[in-house]
Each structure stands twice: as structure tokens, then as C-alpha cells.
Predict the structure.
Amino acid sequence: MITLIHRASSFGEAIAIHSNHKDYTYQQLLKDSNNIALTLLQGNADLEGARIAFLVPSSYEYAVLQWGIWRAGGIAVPLCDKHPLESIKYILEDTQASVLLFTQEFQSLLSPVFETPSLRCLAVEQIDTAENGKLPDVPLDRSALILYTSGTTGLPKGVVTTHKNIEAQITALSTAWEWNAQDRILNVLPMHHVHGIINILSCALWNGACCHFLPKFDPSQIFKAFCNKGITLFMAVPTIYFKLIAHWKQYKEQDQEEISKYLKNFRLMVSGSAALPVSVLEEWRTISGHTLLERYGMTEMGMAISNPYRGERKPGYIGQALPGVSIRLADENDLMVAEGNPGEIQIKGANVFKEYWGKPKETQESLCEGGWFKSGDIAVYEEGAYKILGRNSVDIIKSGGYKISALEIEEVLRTHPDIKDCGVVGLPDPEWGEIIAAGLVPKDNTLDFEALKIWLKEFLPGYKTPRKYELLEELPRNVMGKVTKKELKHLFINE
């Protein structure tokens, strides 16, 4: 029995989801997902792990399809509405999906795959009312979800989680963040990602709370919902908070005060999925009265580490292990490092994924002796909390025998009064191994480079980067591909 769905019957006529200006109860969600499940089964007893892909907006329909797939015994494969057709085809082919569900707004995009012989394509709007039928008793160890990684080191990999994995992820967060039936959370995150699926939607439905969907990111609509919809929780990525801060500054002072009044009544605000700049945390705290709760997780394990709901939240730190999760920091030989030394975050617990879909070698390589999952993220444990230093392959710059955190340097650069944003990378160098390069976005499109040189010498040498810096006013061609996504304007290199 899938516990998440079984629990819904006890919430009855409580509002489960607000979507497209309508409220939907738990009873409606159970009824409609039952209809989808029977439609998928076509008279069969159990889908027995068949992969069912679906592409719908962030909405009530998303929850109905996900639950319907699970109740029929299938594996849900949510697709991203921002992906081009080739990326969608890759996932359909990799998972060998047998059914593709979609809403009519995506019919034109998906039409080239409709003639695939092995793929049954169904528009959600055209699904008839199901006949009566019996649904299978789906065990918790059944695979439930395949989410695809970003594919930064090759083609994207399908991360397979079971219902038991998902239940462990939900219960850990429900305990740590004290979810309750009175909660109402606004969901503006993509629904092909663990943040939106587990941390928000599934946690809300597990606890009898309400998930309020906005179909797309719109700062004015978000603030409107904050003030008029009784929202008590909000979870987002740092970029969203950055954009909300910028939008809030455009309001008149009276409107700013009104928004801030509502924000102060929230129960909890969370940031994750990327490092939160301390400057953004502090600005949002001034606006909302909340110190954002930072947490750490991955597609392969859901959430594993979190700052406390009650207790001190230290800027720049991600907190402690969640209930039921074991964490250790290890060196290149998978041996634990001493406290205060950097090491790779390794995780063990019921939350950790089952496998990479169709990739047994990669699955085995992601684990070390004792079943510890190797995250690839480097952190340090100090003063009772973990602090992320960066991704081992991207954010840790190995220069002259030192391991230097690109994220730490970025935090220092963002304190400069003339720098709006920045990105730090390591560039290959025959003498040092790697040298440090930073792209800088000026606040007013200009920078005093001579003054910045003096500032760099004053601040950065004490920040584990003791060598000389030289500023370049043009971005070298050979690094353009690495930094254009951040729209970086200038570069400095230490030599």
C-alpha cells in the first residue's frame, strides 16, 4: 500500500490543491487519480513497473496523473515543459515509456512522437470517465519515479526512487520542518525536480496541507498570493529570491510595508538547489523578517541535511543531518576526514535512490564500501554545522596544491559595492594546475579597475588565495563557453 495515497482518505473534504483559480479536495484527488489509474490499466491487474511519461503544467492535473500512475503500479516519468523535443525523445526512448500523457497545450510540441508504434499517447482532456475496477496493491519497494539529472558529465541519467525512498524523504522533512494540516504552501518550482515534487507537493499532501500552484514564475503574482491566499510556507531557489527582492524594490514604500507585514506571518521560508549568497539571505531577512532555512539534497537522495526549524540558522551553512539520514565527509580514498577538514559528502539511509535507470556500472560507481552514496560535493563540518565548499568537479579549484572554494571567493566578491553578481571558475594552467578566473557583473555597467585591484589585494589574500591578481577587461575567447550563461562582463585571473 502506498502510504502517501492511503493517508489522503483521512483528509476527506479538506483542500488539497489550489490550481487555475479552483480548489480541489483530497476526495477529488483520490477520485480523479483512480480514474486515471483505471484508464492506464485497460483492464489489466497491474502495470508492474511500466514507465508512464507525462507532460502537463504545474497544476492539479500534475498531481492527478502522478497519483494515477502510482496507483496503477507504474513508474512516473515527469517531463520538463522547457525541454526541446530532442531532450523529451531521449527520455522517452531511454525509459522505454509505454504511455505518454499530455495536456493539449503540448500537443503541437509532442506530435512528432505520436506515430511511435510502442508509445500510447493520450490527451488528458480526452480521457473518459473510467469504469469501475480494482486497483493493485502496490508494495513500497516498487520503483515509483524516474527523474533525470542535468547530464553535466555526459548524457542525463535517470534516477530511480522507490515508494519507500520517497516516504523516507517525506517523513524526514515532515518531522524536521514540522509540517501540519494548517499549512498552505505556494509552489512555483518546476515539477520535474525533487524540490517541487517531494519537498513541496508530496510533503503538503502527506500532512493534509494545501499546495497552491502558480503555473509560471511571476513576481507580481507571487506577492499577490503572499498577501491574499493565506500562504504560510514558501520554498524556492536563490535566483527566485534574488528576483523577488528586485521586484519588491520597485513597489512604493506603502506597498512594500504591506507585503512585509504579510511575510512576517509566514511559518517557514526555505532556500535550496543552489548555494544561497549571504547578501541575498540578508536582504530577504530585512524584507520578510525571516532567516531563510538552507538545506542540502540531490535527485539521488532527496534532502539529507538541513538547518534547524527551531534554532540558529548560520548564513552560509546547510545545518545538520536530517532524521534517519547518516552523513560523513570522506577523502579521495573514501576515508573519513577529521572535523574541520574538507571532504566529500557521503550519505546513507532509506532516502537514497535505488539505481540509475539501465546503468548498473554508474550505479555501482556512485556507491562505496558500506553502501555510502558519493555526492561529489565538498563540504566542511565546523561549529556544529556543514558548510558547502562546492562541487568537486566544478567549484573546487585545485591550484598550487591548494583546494580553493569558488563559492567562498564569490561570497567575498559580492560584498564589493560596485559588483552586482559574479561567477568564479578554474582555468587550466601548466604551472599551477588551475588558476582562478572570475566573471564580474558591475552594478552600473562600469568598474574602477585600479580601485578594484587594490581591493582584491586587501580582501582576497586572506581568503586562502595568497597570490597576485591581474585584471583583464576583455573575456578571452577560450573561456566564453564556460561563463556566457551568467552573462559575465569582466574577468580577473591570478597568476
Summary: DSSP finds 15 helices and 27 strands in the chain. Residues 3-138 form a domain with the Rossmann fold fold (CATH 3.40.50.980). The longest strand covers residues 372-382.
